[in-house]
Amino acid sequence: MLQGTLIYGLINSVVLMLVALGFSVTFGISGVANFAYGALYIMAGYLAWLGLHALHLPYWLAAPGAVLITAGVAALIYWFILLRVRGLVVSEVIATFGVGLAILELFRYLGFIGFEYTLPQVDASYNIGETVVDAQRLLIVAAGLALAGFLWLFTHHTKVGLAFRGIAQDERTSLTLGINTDKIAAFSVAFGAGYAALAALVILPLGTIAVNEGYNVLVNALAVCIVGGLGSTVGIIVASLLIGYAQILTATYLETHWMMIVSLVAILLILAIKPSGLFGVHKELEERI
Amino acid sequence: MARRRERVDRGIKVRSEDVYALTSWREMLYLAAPRVLPVVALFVLGMTASVYWERVLVSTCMFAMLAISWDVLNSAGMVSLGQALFFGMGAYIAGTLNHYLGLGPWLTLPLATLGGGLVCTLVLLPVLRLRGIYFAMVTLILPLMIERVIEATKIFGGTEGLSGLTPLGSEHVQFLVALVAVWVALYGFRRMMGTDYGLLLKGIKDNDRAVMSAGINIYWYKAQALFLASAVGAFAGAFMTHAYQFVGMPVFALDYSIMPIASVAVGGMGTLAGPMLGSFILVPLSELLRGLGGLRTVIYAVILVACTVGLPEGVFHYLARKYTQFERWAEVDK
């Protein structure tokens, strides 16, 4: 019982982390709002499904195709929509949220609802101690570790990754240092969407692809980013572990009704006590006065 | 020859800005028309419309009040992503007072307005020191959490809500109350923002540390602004509770947080009239699109994005500019 809780808590945490990583690249690290994130996540799932079942492509072609198309769509969203309202925070949020709404509801309108919309998963299961864990969930954990590690390396040791962090700190200063902020911001939106697509490809096989999941994904990603602190990859890992275990523990020992409440209370407490998050860069006068 | 567009104030605006220079009917009309015409037009529109559209106008007025409340808060430097908190608080206070104590709507409306404002202010008091996105996130999370708490603890009717509440009166009575409320809110707050008090609130938004260094307790003023704004939102909630004769978990839903912000994005912030205009565009539009079925939300979202991207300053600012200024091509000096 306890062992099962621990293992499934870890898996739940990694799912949260995978979902939050892409959002963190754009919003947390580069400071570009992309509230169409949940829609892009779901879109990647449907694109892969379409590739497999409508075009009858092999998996090794359909999956990377879905990732690339999602990233391309995100770059287009930035170039034609976000770029024009850059700096007007309310308009940024509303415009990207509107795009996400349009994408998600379009899929709903086209009838992409039902049990046949599933992605292929790895069929196998292993016993860890007394707990049975299927291979897909192990794959999720492996993918989570790999993607988080890659993100940390990318944002700390490559030129583009450092530019991501640069435009979040000060866009004008990065301009003077020869960083093309528009291109970098577009690239960061596309990069985040690519991460969302990868997360979708490993997580969605656990269930069916559902439109409503897009909204939950956005809220979860936002929650993890806030608790962990904007701009910190380590913060994301710690925050997903915290929220993930809190959710699984409340689901086991209380009712499932309380699962969402626990993560919301965690966010509220973090915001009230340490607004920049657990590992975020502390900005004394910017966060409270 | 390089040219640029130049904007110049219209003569009539310059003349009529000074009250003592009002010499002709034309100038007085120029000032009065944009203020009086909407009031008259909305009144006539509502009284002649069908029952269905009269109801749409009533809920439009309430969304407009939520949007105005957003703009008041924003003028004092607080960005809210959770107008549903104010709306839901007012709705539940009015609903429980009516359901458990049997108070009539004319008693629950003022009680819910004041009570809702007070409760929301007290709830947000601990995070009043937070700025910008951090304050916004707290307001976004609170209504979502209250919704879940009601679901889990099953208080006040739980998921079923409270139904069979006392109605407000006939369609016309409802419409008139909503109309008076929204105009009082708009012109009252516009007047307030013009006084020294409003200037102080704007100062807190522009540079809170400068206001502090002038020896002014900004938390006290922020709390007051919060109370005013949340009371307006609570009124809207209480009113809709009696109009629908029902209160339940949906009053804390994300719709009531997003619609006011969308109105602000379309109408343009900072003037209070902009957000109101925005909701008078968006709410009837979403009703018009109802016939399209599933495509409704898609088209609605596309229009919303087109408005925010095509006219980032907002419809109201655009119209106001066209009304008070003219544009011409001017040659650029070498």
What are the salient characteristics of this protein?
heterodimer, A: 289 residues, mainly alpha, ABC transporter involved in vitamin B12 uptake, BtuC, 12 helices, 3% strand, globular, B: 334 residues, 5% strand
CATH class label of chain A: Mainly Alpha
The CATH class designation of chain B is Mainly Alpha
Named at the architecture level, the CATH assignment of chain A is: Orthogonal Bundle
Q: Which pair of chains forms the biggest interface, and how many residues does each contribute?
A: A-B, 39 and 41 residues
Into which percentage range does the β-strand content of chain A fall? under 5%
Low-pLDDT parts of chain A are none
Oligomer: heterodimer
Q: Give me the Rg of chain A, rounded.
A: 19 Å
| Global structural class of chain A | mainly alpha
Q: What form of chain B results from the Cα inertia axes? A: globular
Can you count the helices of chain A?
A: 12
How many β-strand runs of chain A? Answer: 2
Q: Could you say what the CATH topology of chain A is called?
A: ABC transporter involved in vitamin B12 uptake, BtuC
Structure, explained:
The complex is a heterodimer of chains A (289) and B (334). Chain A has 289 residues and is mostly helical. Chain A has a single domain, classed as ABC transporter involved in vitamin B12 uptake, BtuC. Chain A contains 12 helices and 2 strands. Chain A has helices spanning 2-29, 37-53, 59-80, 89-109, 135-157, 159-169, 171-176, 181-203, 213-228, 233-253, 257-273, 284-287, and strands spanning 125-128, 131-134. In chain A, helix 6 (159-169) packs across helix 8 and helix 9 packs across helix 10 (233-253). The relative contact order of chain A is 0.19. The mean pLDDT of chain A is 83. Chain B is mainly alpha-helical. Chain B has one domain (3-331): ABC transporter involved in vitamin B12 uptake, BtuC (Orthogonal Bundle), CATH 1.10.3470. Chain B contains 14 helices and 4 strands. Chain B has helices at 11-17, 25-48, 51-75, 83-101, 105-124, 132-153, 171-194, 196-206, 208-213, 218-244, 255-267, 273-288, 295-310, 315-324, and strands spanning 3-9, 162-163, 246-247, 325-331. In chain B, the strands form 2 sheets. Chain B has a two-stranded antiparallel sheet with strand order 1-4. In chain B, strands 2-3 form a two-stranded antiparallel sheet. In chain B, helix 1 (11-17) crosses helix 2 (25-48), helix 4 (83-101) packs across helix 11 and helix 5 runs antiparallel to helix 10 (218-244). The model of chain B has no long low-confidence stretch (mean pLDDT 87). Classes of the chains: A mainly alpha (289), B mainly alpha (334). Chains A and B meet through helix 4, helix 9, helix 11 and helix 12 of A and helix 6, helix 9, helix 11 and helix 13 of B.
